[in-house]
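Example record

The entry below shows one chain as it appears in the dataset: sequence first, then structure tokens.
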Amino acid sequence: MVLFPPAKINIGLFITEKRSDGFHALETCFVQIPWTDILEISPAPNFSFSSSGLPISGPMDSNLCVRAYELLKKDFSMAPVHIHLHKIIPMGAGLGGGSSDAAYTLMGLRDLFKLPLTNEDLVPYAQQLGSDCAFFLFNQAQFGQGKGDELSPIPLSLQGYFVLLAYPNFGISTQQAYAQVKPKPAPVFLPEAISLPMKTWKTHISNDFEDSLFPSYPLLEQMKKDMYNLGAEYAAMSGSGSTMFGIFNQKVDPPEGWADFPMWSGYIS
């Protein structure tokens, strides 16, 4: 079984308060983007995990794909499998690649072993693996609240738009991003703001991490300006990572200075 876990971008991200459990409350809109990893799950004599592509740090037992298998195995009888992950989506990039890999591992194991679980049934497992993991169980834009795991579908589609994502060859850890952010009430209700014409998003919709991270990473601020200079309808940082994205009405070529950056671009179908 071969699966293609996608990336995501955040249209707006407001950090609204520091919760009593140590996490931050946020409001954001998640949208899937077809920049994908490649995940293979196959029956095997013993459980094993391997990877290729971009190097993955940390011990095997901390990998989210491995943890997804272990979570399901606690509740269901599953034979051993070999999981191979070919990593393409950059890490620390705000694209949710690890969470997507975990969600697709849950769905892949469910299908392989014919477990009596709907995608909705998989949500509690996904929530144990990552705050944005549950989003990837549903092929629809979602409004996220709480830690990002309280989801409501929204009628947002980027179909027909040309999207450009650029990763500037450095990641930003979630811990680093949250250490500098200052929670404040959301200035708008995102589902309503997103229903307005995209040209107005620049005025109403922002990512709170930009205020705290742009002073430390002026390249990111310049990349956002470059997106608008290329004619973007909307441009922003994705999540708490370092990827910048732009949404365009037509195909564009990235600036020459981005030649060494990992990028994805294409029309959304």
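Notes for this example: The chain has eight helices and twelve strands. Helices lie at 64-75, 97-112, 123-129, 174-180, 190-194, 201-204, 208-213, 218-229.
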